Amino acid sequence: MIYASSSQCMKDLAAVEAIDYFTASRLMDELQCTDNALLFHCFIALSFSLRSGSSCIELDKLANQILWLDEGKKGYQFADYAGIEAAFSGLAISETDNASIVKIGNLLYLRRYWLFEQQVADNLRQRMLVSADSEFALSDEQQQRARHTLANLFADSMDAAQPDYQAVAVANALNRPLSVITGGPGTGKTYTLCRLLLSLQAVLGEQINIKLAAPTGKAAQRMKESIAQNLAKLKVNTEVGAHLAIESMTLHRLLGISRDPVSPRYHQDNKIRCDVLVVDEVSMLDLAMLARLLRALPDHCRLILLGDAEQLPSVEVGQLMKDLCPLPHQGYSQTALQQIQQLLPQASWTNQLTQQSESKTDYLTVLDKTHRQLDSDSPYNISALANLVIAGNSRDSWALLTDSVQAQGDMFSSPQLTLNNTAQTVDDESLIRELSQRYYAAIAKAANIEAAFKALNRFRILVPTRVGQSGVEGLNQLIEQQLGYATLGKWYRGRPIMVTENDYTNGLFNGDVGLVWPAQNGQLVAYFETLDGIKNVPLSRLPAIETVYAMTIHKTQGSEFERVALLLPQQNNRVLSKELLYTAITRASEHLYVLADENRWLQAFDNPSQRYSGLSRLLFA
Ligand SMILES: Nc1ncnc2c1ncn2[C@@H]1O[C@H](COP(=O)(O)OP(=O)(O)OP(=O)(O)O)[C@@H](O)[C@H]1O
């Protein structure tokens, strides 16, 4: 027995949880090696890293490390790599064995995740190959139609001095079973998608079955709204775009997942019926869900994935956008370039596109020019800050924030960015009180539920963590107090709530946001904005929920608010990273308030968010 109990283990090892202890103990029993402390701690590390979203661990990275050491905790010192290898030798844990773990070289997996990675990689590798005789290749006549459509859709950029990567993305995707389009907010992913779908209809026929999906209800709803807005602005000849379906749905619904995600309605023997599937917000998609999706996708279906590769990865295991989008993009193979040039013969810039012999990422297009009108007006804008942050430019990003204060003055009248440098000005609490009064008080005063949702979506306070005074829980209490709701009891008109577990009976999912509001008979119920409109659920039938004036940055993926206040905690926190800052910053469409001091801001850049995954090796090795 390495530890007398799970509590002894947690007493000795900082941040280790009971689940890690029990997973490691189960594996030790299964492999009948009960007294090998080194193996036990490798298994603890495996369970620990699964909880942080990695699909595997790299055993060589454990060598000679002291992990889980903290004040009052002993931690554990790992042996060198030779010692670790020796501990695993003789165990039947290869690909062909039946053990619950698999070791491939330096990578250690739970078999379940290894299988998911294999399935995903096999399917995607097939889709990455495009041969001249593939069923996706365009006939001469289809190419002719594609040229005509692209010339029409991208008429304005044919003579541009620089390549128009939106046009490249469309031309590049037309003959492929897999396309990935990545870019930050406002770079025109949806604008490009609309043109791609219209081009596919022009080439393949308007009757093609297109399905649109996203990992969460909120993301699916945003996708639908954004497509509708982009189509409304489309000024093209009506011979293209006469008809385009814009219904979007969650991946759960697409796959027919009810209670049990392990047995969805659609799978390898009952495939989804569609010719083109678009998935938006792929950074939120986890490995297991992608594996299920690919199993259920017919071979002839074109798969188009959209997302921001720089955003935080999914809450669950995987980092698919990062694995699929090695950045910066190295360029296209000669064959891919020929196809792009053939379909865009009038474009003056196609010879500027980078060629890379044997490119393995022809399926990828990176959009890097922001098209949000707001962004061009002032140097102190949200995209400029987001770009500096994701480039790891800690000091310049802080300088942009401090300069914006000097240049723009007043916190509430400046156009896009404001910093409350708590080292110099008002403390966080006073400002949070002021912001709450300014934005949240309007929710309960709204005339009806639609207006209340509008008021709620105007503003959100984002923080990295749940606990503590500057965590979600402390802030929600503070705001309820400030607004005078603390004495109203648990349920009051205008209380914003977030669902924290999947509830298949009511069709509510973890992360769905609603409002408590009186029904027609005056009784309080919970309303939710869903893809099918606003629906209500009696308070007694709600699943687990929490108040959501403030929410964690992780939970905001796939959402956007007009105004965001990003509050960084006083103490350095392990979860802070530049990806977390970037995700928070890019949730704001009009204005971002940053509440931090220099130390807190700079510290976030010292904690890179690291996940392990074997997928990119499988795809590109
Ligand atoms: N080439 C373009 N010319 C003019 N307007 C454009 C162009 N590309 C995008 N836009 C406009 O810029 C705005 C942002 O584009 P879009 O919604 O497609 O970005 P996005 O990358 O999907 O953003 P997000 O990730 O935030 O959803 C939209 O109003 C869109 O119509």
UniProtKB/TrEMBL annotation:
UvrD-like helicase C-terminal domain boundaries: 548-594
Catalytic activity: ATP + H2O = ADP + phosphate + H(+)
One Gene Ontology term of the molecular function aspect: exodeoxyribonuclease V activity
UniProt-listed CDD domains: DEXSc_RecD-like, SF1_C_RecD
Gene3D superfamilies with a match to the protein in the record: 2.30.30.940, P-loop containing nucleotide triphosphate hydrolases
Any one GO biological process: double-strand break repair via homologous recombination
Binding site for ATP: G183, G184, P185, G186, T187, G188, K189, T190
One cellular component (GO) term of this entry: exodeoxyribonuclease V complex
Domain of life according to the entry: Bacteria
Family the UniProt entry places it in: Belongs to the RecD family.
NCBIfam families the record matches: recD
Additional remarks: In the RecBCD complex, RecB has a slow 3'-5' helicase, an exonuclease activity and loads RecA onto ssDNA, RecD has a fast 5'-3' helicase activity, while RecC stimulates the ATPase and processivity of the RecB helicase and contributes to recognition of the Chi site.
Functional note: A helicase/nuclease that prepares dsDNA breaks (DSB) for recombinational DNA repair. Binds to DSBs and unwinds DNA via a highly rapid and processive ATP-dependent bidirectional helicase activity. Unwinds dsDNA until it encounters a Chi (crossover hotspot instigator) sequence from the 3' direction. Cuts ssDNA a few nucleotides 3' to the Chi site. The properties and activities of the enzyme are changed at Chi. The Chi-altered holoenzyme produces a long 3'-ssDNA overhang and facilitates RecA-binding to the ssDNA for homologous DNA recombination and repair.
Oligomer status and interactors: Heterotrimer of RecB, RecC and RecD. All subunits contribute to DNA-binding.
Annotated protein name in UniProt: RecBCD enzyme subunit RecD
Source organism of this protein record: Neptunicella marina
